[in-house]
Design goal:
The complex is a heterodimer of chains A (151) and B (309). Chain A has 151 residues and is mainly beta. Chain A is built from 2 helices and 9 strands. Chain B is 38% helix and 14% strand. In chain B, helix 1 crosses helix 5. Classes of the chains: A mainly beta (151), B alpha/beta (309).
Chain lengths: 151, 309
Amino acid sequence: MKEFRVTPIRNGTVIDHIDCGQALKVLRIIGINDSVQYTVSVLLHVPSKKDGWKDIIKVEDRELDAKEVDKISLIAPHATINIIRDFNVAEKFTVKMPEVAKGIVKCGNPNCITNMNEPVETEFVIESKDPTVLRCLYCDRIQENVADRLV
Amino acid sequence: MNFKGTDVVSIRDLSRKQIEHVMDLAEELVPYASGEKRTRVMDGKILANLFFEPSTRTRLSFESAMVRLGGRFIEIAQPQNSSIVKGETLADTIRMVDGYSDAIVLRHPHEGAARLAAKYSSKPVINAGDGAGQHPTQTILDLFTIRQQAGGIAGKKIVLVGDLKYGRTAHSLAEALGMFGADLTFVAPPVLQMPKDTISQLEKSGISPHLSSDLAEEVSDADVLYITRIQRERFPDPAEYNKVAGSYRVDRSLLRDAKKNLAILHPLPRVDEISPEVDNTENAKYFQQAFNGVPVRMALILLLLGGDL
């Protein structure tokens, strides 16, 4: 019998094929903190046939919304989302980076108008998906370290 | 070519064909800009000039352009007297001004302000400079002046000199000149040389700019010398600033071996990068360049608001 390091979950979400080293950032995206009332399992540096090494997160009794999935796509573009219902994979898909990232990243230019209390959502054109390169639609700046500025 | 109702936020918003169209119309408008001919084509139209940062040439030339076209302007020239000081957002100011005018000209200290204004305004928005970002009407008037003075742009040796790293006008001008097939040389001290992503942008469009730090060597076969100011605050050591600034100063002795019809341009204001003795030479074209702001801005207003001469 195959031995599991982490047991299967009844209901919830498994985020698989997270780029190695990005799992803790994904936890931040999906808002895992001290006050959550469900179990979260995190596997770091797991061997993967496809990617060499990967991270995995299992969140019980919780499904992700579209904005969370978009954010994950920016830092883990190869991640797959498995929605588990009653121990079965009810849905499975690979995250897809949007053409325009709207309202999910803060612009890194402190002088950008979107950082000035204006009633406007940030917007970034995805110039390249691999590596991830974003350009602010407002100030035109190329963005670095996107993971640190996810909203 | 239809421009009516569009915004001019970045030079990248315009194609080469559109820029050429603006320049062709500007050429026709020169006699109107100088007052030699009269028109009332913009009669009854209002241009809103919103200047949240100091400006002399840009503001005055937009005002002059609208008046020369027979229109009128309203303005915020001293933001300390406006509701901005009460904490009003730019988005609200724009929605209000949208109801008072037919087109909006905006200069603002924050990058991206014009793009935001364009989003909130139903009227055309012209970016007159947003922080360290874009200043597309300056770029078009620079291209217009180069084309006028050098008899074309493609294949002409154009030397950009000075602070090419931080200078707002230098990046977008370089990209636009690349679009027109100019032979580009960038002269700057290594710390102020053109940013790598501007150079790689040019290389993608098939232009390989020549980089140098020796102005005297590059002047002799240049068609256009475009000077920008080296700012003192970029140098922690004043002695270093004086040394660098001194080696990029244009004076008569530098021009001794230059082509007879070399055109010297500068977006102004200048401090001491061009010696006053150069003003009286045939090569000094920077005041002509400042004048050209009027016909170029007239052309844009006319195209965005629609109307025939």
